[in-house]
Amino acid sequence: MAKRKVTAQEPDQSWQKMLLARPVRNAAAKVSACSDGCLRIAIPNLRPWYLFPPISWMVRPAASKSLVLEGLGAEVWDLCDGRRTVEEVTDCFAARHSLSFHESRVSITGYLRLLVQRGALAMVEEA
Fold first, then answer.
1. pTM of the entire structure?
2. What is 16-80 written as a DSSP string?
3. Cβ(80)–Cβ(21) under 8 Å?
């Protein structure tokens, strides 16, 4: 099996693409503020393909899943308005918390990846 040769430019290009993407909130998600300053996000679940009658009469899947964002997570959520790029979100976060761009990038990209995996955000790449 032949191994693919990786050039030095490929990782830089993928980072540039990722930094230019815009995090967009899930339009179907319902956001509510908790009394202690955190945000609760309810994301509707799609019905699985295998849940059809009569199975769906016995097994009731949850209508939605919820995420609770506290402190820094709620701040990142507020920065993800669909207009800012990941780079701009990272810059804002770094400025507010006296971090370098690279320190902020590591934490922001990891957190955004988690929100995308859970269905709260989607990433839109510029054409």
1. 0.79
2. HHHHH-EEEE-TT-EEEE-TTS-EEEEEEPPPPTT--TTHHHH----SEEEEEE-THHHHHHHH-
3. no
Mind listing the domains of the chain with CATH numbers?
A: 19-124 (3.90.930)
Tens place of pLDDT per residue across the chain (127 aa): 556 565 555 556 677 888 899 999 999 999 999 888 899 999 998 877 777 788 777 888 788 899 999 989 999 999 999 999 999 999 999 999 999 999 999 999 999 999 999 999 999 987 6
Q: Yes or no: say if 105 and 98 are a contact pair by the CB < 8 Å rule.
A: no
Hey, how many other C-beta atoms are within 10 angstroms of the C-beta on 74?
A: 18
d(CA 28, CA 45): 10
Which residue type occupies 113? R
Q: How far, in Å, are 25, 40, 56, 122 from residue 115 at the CA level?
A: 9, 13, 29, 8
Alpha-carbon distance of 44 to 27, in angstroms, equals: 10
